[in-house]
Amino acid sequence: MKEKIFLTRTLHDFAIKELKKNFQVEIHKGKIPIPQSTLKSKIKNVDGLICFPYDKIDKKIIETAENLKVISTYSVGYDHIDTQFAKEKKIRVGYTPEVLTDATADLAFGLLIDSLRRISEGDRLIRKGKWKQIYGAYDYVGLDLQEKTLGIIGLGRIGKALAKRAKAFNMKIIYHNRKQITKGQERKLGVKYATFDKLITQSDIISIHVPHTKETNGMFNMKIFKKMKNDAFLINTSRGKVVNEKDLTLALKQKTIAGAGLDVFEIEPIRKNHPFIKLENIVLAPHVGSSTKETRGKMAEITVKNLILGINGKKPIYSIGY
Ligand code: DGY
Predict the structure, then answer these.
(1) Protein residues with CB under 6 Å of any ligand 1 atom
(2) Is 92 a catalytic site residue?
C-alpha cells in the first residue's frame, strides 16, 4: 500500500503529478492557512506532510502524528516548525534554501532602489492625479545609491547575494554576522565586517537577513532606530517578527529614520487599517521574496524531493536537525 501524504495547500501541477505517482495524496482545499484543528485531524495517520510558512507545525501538531516520517516545507524559513521536537521524534524536516537566494536578494535590492528613488511613492502620486511639477530642482528628488553605506545584518547566502548587487552599484558594504568571514572572502565580496553597533550607526541603508528566533525577535526596535542615522532606511525581507512594527511606525512618523522597505510583517497579510498603509515613507511588498515563476518551480521540485527522501528514511537534500 502506498504511503499517505498531506499538503496544507496545493503545489504546481508537475509536483502533484510526481507525488501522486508515489503516494496517496490529500490536498487541503479549504481556508488558508489551514485551521489547526483540521491539520490535527489530517496529520494523525499520514507518513509525510508538505507545509508552507503560514502553517504552524508546533509540538501539539507533531505529537498527534502517529506515522509521520517527514515534514517538507515549501520555504527557506522554518520558524513555523518545532524542529527540535521533530528531531526528538526522529521526523525529518526538509526546506528549500539556495534556489531562492537570487530572487530574494533581487527583491531586497528592489525595495532598496524603490525606497531611495521613491518609485512607489511616485506611482501613487500619479494615480491620484497629483503630479503637478515637472523637473524642478526640488521636485520628487530621491537619493543616489552609489557611495551610500549598505549595512547587511546576517551574511548568509542571501546577504552575500545582496552584497554582489550592491557592489555593482558602487555602494560601500559593511556587514555584521555571528561569524566573520575570512579576509580573502571579504575582499572578493567587497565587504567589511562591523560590530552590530557600528553597523547600526554608520549605515545609510540596513538590510536584514537573519532568521526569526528567540534571539532576533523584535531585534529592530526604537532603541535601534534611535541609534540609526535619521536619513537611513531599513529593508526587511527576512521575517516580520524581527522588527517591532509599533516602534517602526513611530520611527517613520517622527522621522527618526527616513524610510523602510518591507516584504514581511509581524502578521500576514497585514490588515486593511494597518498604520503602515497611511505612511508615504514606506514601500510594502506582499511577502514575495521568493516569488518568481522560475524560483517557485525550483522550490516545488526540492519540496517533493525532500519529501520522497524523508519518507524513504533518507536525509532530505536540505534538512534541519535530523
Ligand atoms: C521563505 O521561503 O521562507 C520565504 O520567506 C518565502 O518568500
Answers:
(1) 53, 75-77, 100, 287, 289-290
(2) no
Question: Residue range 2-16: average pLDDT?
Answer: 98
What pLDDT was estimated at residue 133?
A: 80
Dihedral angle sign, alpha carbons of residues 269, 270, 271, 272: negative
Query: How large is the average pLDDT for residues 235-263?
Result: 98
**Which atom of ligand 1 is the closest one to the Cα of 287?**
7
Measured torsion, CA atoms of residues 25, 29, 31, 33, in degrees rounded to the nearest 10: 40
- Which residues does 217 contact at the CB level (< 8 Å), separation at least 6? 241, 242
Q: What is the CATH number of the domain that holds 138?
A: 3.40.50.720
- For residue 45, give its domain range: 4-97+294-311
Identify the band that residue 26 occupies on the pLDDT scale cut at 50, 70 and 90. very high
* Nearest to 280, CA basis, from 123, 59, 85, 93: 123
Position 316 in a domain: no
